[in-house]
């Protein structure tokens, strides 16, 4: 026999369960990463990054998870006494979650250092159809003008080229890693990236990354981290896009024959 008190407890549990079941899994965007950092660009002709002179910028990044399409998500950055501005969705496939970012207007070198070190901290609001979440970007405790890698070269026009570069004199700088990215010259999309140690000067792309007949630029990023968060970075690029060669018909035929012969050999062995 259930007492009145027992009935009240049971009713409370059932109501709580009903509320839990009716609440969406994502009540607002879920923030996975926040970055605010100095971002310098060497002169280049790469789509989405092109600049005729050295570009000195600050950049805001918000990575998040939302059950909505990216077009239904809005991210705004602001600071007390400053203007509000939207961050832009970056649709490159190298980003596992939605990335919204924006670069500042160009600064002189002293101007960038002063801007990056100024206070109060920047804040953000991210909104989708389920709700909003707000917070603050990390500050930049030690803004620096990082130098650039140089002489970014591609070994050949094959599908697995080796990318090489030269490092500047990094004494006095705290470079924690190097990031290499491949950029499709036609679409401007960044289609591949890898993290390397701070002393790396080359990397060979694995099979299956590049498409025959497509042209690619390569981007070498020197990164300074503070407690695991990006604080300063510099970006250098290959001078020209390298087009991946398409195998000649004769070569394609030879590859096909070789594959068929291998398949038939395997089948014969299985039939024995």
Structure description:
The chain has helices spanning 4-22, 109-117, 249-271, and strands at 30-41, 55-65, 74-78, 85-86, 88-90, 98-103, 123-128, 131-136, 150-154, 162-166, 177-184, 190-196, 202-204, 215-226, 229-237, 242-243. Strand 5 and strand 6 (98-103) form a beta hairpin. It is of the alpha+beta class. The chain is built from three helices and 16 strands. The longest helix has 23 residues, at 249-271. The protein folds into two domains: 30-136, Immunoglobulin-like; 150-243, Immunoglobulins (Immunoglobulin-like, Sandwich), CATH 2.60.40. It starts with a helix and ends with a helix.
Q: Output the helix-strand order.
A: HEEEEEEHEEEEEEEEEEH
- CA radius of gyration: 26 Å
**Structural class of the helix and strand makeup?**
alpha+beta
How would you describe the shape?
Answer: globular
User: Helix count, per DSSP?
Assistant: 3
Helix fraction by DSSP (H/I, runs of at least 4):
10-25%
Q: What is the arithmetic mean of pLDDT?
A: 87
Give the terminus-to-terminus CA distance.
Answer: 74 Å
Number of strands: 16
In short:
By secondary structure, this protein is of the alpha+beta class. The protein has three helices and 16 strands. The strands form three sheets. Strands 1, 2, 5, 6, 11, 12, 14, 15 and 16 form a nine-stranded mixed β-sheet that branches. A four-stranded antiparallel β-sheet has the order 4-3-7-8, with no helix packed on it.
Write the layout of secondary structure elements.
Layout: H1 4-22, E1 30-41, E2 55-65, E3 74-78, E4 85-86, E5 88-90, E6 98-103, H2 109-117, E7 123-128, E8 131-136, E9 150-154, E10 162-166, E11 177-184, E12 190-196, E13 202-204, E14 215-226, E15 229-237, E16 242-243, H3 249-271
Parallel strand pairs: 1-15
Antiparallel strand pairs: 1-2, 2-6, 3-4, 3-7, 5-6, 7-8, 9-10, 10-13, 11-12, 11-14, 14-15, 14-16
